[in-house]
Design a protein that fits this description.
14% strand; binds zinc ion; elongated; 4 helices
Length: 145
């Protein structure tokens, strides 16, 4: 839930910024009330609107792309990429993938190295209660005389 709220917040912030930029562009190019066939400055306005559209699309792409490599629990960037599998030993080791891990041990993310049939969804595997198990063994060691 927190993961999706963070993504929605980023997209909302970027949309608000781009809407402000759009209002600024409209302020400098007011509507034509003189009924010209080709209003003066329309080419510059169209060029700026095209650039605005490209910037908006790029910003949306960056928001989604950066969100893919974040921990689903703590929202930190995933680290320590490890390559697994190989094409030569595909039957034994599986297809080549890159695994990222949360630095606080919340889970791992598996990304396919080669996306043959379009963009595949990354596979998120939560580690579960790994820290509680480790702490429990430490508590057991403390309780022993
Ligand atoms: Zn985490």
């Amino acid at each position: 839930m927190r993961y999706w709220a963070y993504l929605a917040g980023k997209i909302f912030f970027c949309a608000a910024f781009m809407y402000g930029l759009l209002c600024l562009l409209d302020h400098f190019f007011p509507a034509d009330n003189h009924h010209h066939i080709i209003p003066p400055g329309i080419l510059l306005y169209m060029l700026l609107m095209g650039l605005w559209f490209l910037a908006s699309s790029g910003l949306l792409f960056v928001c989604i792309w950066a969100q893919r490599c974040r921990c689903r629990v703590c929202l930190r960037r995933l680290r320590m990429p490890v390559e697994t599998g190989s094409w030569g030993g595909m039957l034994l080791l599986g297809r080549p993938r890159i695994e990222y891990i949360c630095p606080y041990g919340h889970g791992t993310l598996k990304l396919a190295e080669l996306q043959i049939s379009g963009l595949e969804n990354p596979e998120w595997n939560p580690n579960g209660e790994i820290w509680e198990e480790l702490c429990a063994s430490a508590h057991d060691a403390d309780e022993r005389p």
